Amino acid sequence: MAHSLPSHASVVVIGGGIMGCSTLYHLAKMGVSDAILLERNKLTSGTTWHSAAQVRALRHSQNLTRMIQYSVDLYSQLEQETGQNVGWIQKGSLSIATSEGRLTHIQRQEALAHAYGVEAYSISTGEATERWPLMNAEDVIGAVWSPDDGRVSPSDVCAALIKAAKGLGTKLFENTGVTGILTENGRIKGVETTQGTITCDAIALCTGLWSRELCAMAGAEVPVQACEHFYLLTKPIDGIVGNTPTLSDHDSHLYIRDDSGGLLVGCFEPMGKAVPPGILDENFEFSLLPEDWDHFEPMMMNALNRLPALETAEVKMLLNGPESFTPDGMFMLGETAETRGLFLGCGLNSVGIASGGGAGMNLAHCIVHGHTAYDLGETDAKRFAPVFNSLDHLMARAPEILGTHYEIAYPGRQLSTARSLRALPLELEYKAAGAHFGQFYGWERPLFFNKTTEPEMKFGKPDWFDNVASEVKAAHEQAAIFDASSFGKIEIQGPDAEAFLQYTCASNMDKAPGSAIYTAVLNERGTYESDITAHRIAEDHYRLFVGTNAIKRDLAWFRRHSEEFDVALTDSTENYAVLGLMGPEAARIVSETGAPELTELGYFKVGPAHIAGCHVRAIRMSYVGEAGWEITMKAENAKTVYAALVQAGATPAGMYAQTSMRIEKGFAAMGHELDSDISPIEAGLDMLVSKRKTFVGSDALADRRKTAKRRLVTVIVDDEAAVPLGQEPIYAKDKIIGHTTSTGFGYRIGKPVALAHVHLENVDGAAVELDIAGQRFAATLQLACAYDPAGTRMKG
Questions:
Q1: Rounded Cα distance, 564 and 494, in Å
Q2: Is 453 exposed, middle or buried (0-12, 13-18, 19+ CB in 10 A)?
Q3: CA-CA distances (angstroms) from residue 142 to 128, 139, 249?
Q4: Which tens digit of pLDDT belongs to each residue from 214-269?
Q5: How many C-beta atoms surround the C-beta of residue 292 within 10 A?
Q6: What is the pTM of this model?
């Protein structure tokens, strides 16, 4: 260990677990040789040392899987690079199913694995028993075998990473606690420690259980909460010979493997236990929480059923080690919204070892290059609403998140804890109409209406199918109301408003007041940061509408690009309600409710009016392919406007109907079809990009035009009974050419429909197959959208 703290370092990594060690290693590999790592106690003394250390490659998205695959490659070659044995054991993993829902779940995982380049195979119950002879397989109805998965020794991996990093010039300081974080004008300036103060340009905060408290020192919000995590260790037992695959019995909430000739039996029980504040203090070093056999007993009974040999096994210990969890079960990676130069690598949700290699590489890449190596938007450090940073909400939510690790991934499942955090202005009206709500950025948004009972969770035709059908029919034949109030709203005001948006947005923003513009917001690589709709209200005033989950991220991005412009940026999200009135009866309804002038608005034009005596501002546009307006009003006027629209014949419709109609229209959405790996060229939206101005990403986009091709297509499935859910691999003959992104049933065309990214020449009319849980369904690709490709319906 180095002995004297330097006065300055380019990057200070805080935390000596797998995430901190991996980040330091990758910073060194990327040339940041003066980076240092501070650890309050000793390396791995927080949660890393007691990790079960499973490394399973397959995740629910391609890039998360890619990230774990990087970890596999890194761990398997570290010993050769450093001479340090890391205990890498690659014996594969076996996932079993004891219910039809679980069988479909693991079959969908197998299909995903094929799409993402991960080896996985369905095997018989007999072959599963051959791979795990100690297993009671009487109730097992199927299994999937993943040969490339493995495990590692956490402490040895960290030692190897540090050894390599130090060899490249970086330094480690153990027994050096952080007592303060210095900022100036919203930027990181330095770190105060028990060994002195050091200035720096950036901090990589990889402090696991303690991240929320340390980030608060820098004025940033990090909603992470510790929960107890249990696994049982036995002394050696007969039948364990050498190393075995990891056995995943997720119907019983268990993972099982050998350990020193005995068994390691761990669980993610349906509802975990949060660790109260004050337990995990600065003295919690290589420590554990008390055994709790009462809490573990139901899992123990499940384990005895699966492994009869446990009945006579001698218990070594019930390990209870804390792990940190976030409100959505994904870790936090990247720069914070509140403080420039403060980068997070925390909230690993008990998958730190599997994620650590690839996550550390991406965090280092973010610090050095300003972005992750590939899109990891689902881990963005700026994705949580401030309301989730409440300790009460975290204590309620984190135990449920622990349990979701092994839940069946049924479509439409909603979390039950920490709900009703943010209410739409029309919440009571929607409840009266039988709304079934989903939570988005803390908001409760209607998914569908006329709910009579809680829907059954299943992979087949959903319980809400007919509800959504009636809502689509209303929008198609009469008029429906879609609530967009939760969308983020940013006011851009000042003499440089136009110049600022011309620089930050890809479309031409130099339109007259009363115009609306749909535009990509790109990064320096020419790929998507966001897509927005802007209303030009006056020469010096635009209102931007951004995605519900994107407001914190997008506001931070715009603010960080505004320093050279005379503009003021304001978050006005909660000041306004937005109601989309869509359908052939929409024109009659706005006329009858006091706003006939709206019928004179041209497409993508904005105008003021009064509905039921309330001032509104409406844009002629449609996200669902039917004629209508998105109507903005003061939040306090929403009840009056809504009542008038309903009285005139409109009916409320939920997000599921909107999504179905969006997919039929081929409209791309951030986080589905659009992300930071995709440019407008691949998305088929380059025609909306200005070719006459310079903007963020314009040079990179021009270069990309020389080689990039459109990849986004519509997929129409022949079989009306097929239920695609997203991420299904697409086969042309026996070759995977892409995967679906957004999926749904197209009620207006009478068939399942999807959007997809594909790599295929001669796309239009191509016959393909979708793999849905191991079953192939015939489908057709087309460049045009599935419904009304000429757009005559929505343009009136």
A1: 13
A2: exposed
A3: 8, 9, 11
A4: 999 999 999 999 999 999 999 999 988 889 999 999 999 999 999 999 999 999 99
A5: 13
A6: 0.96
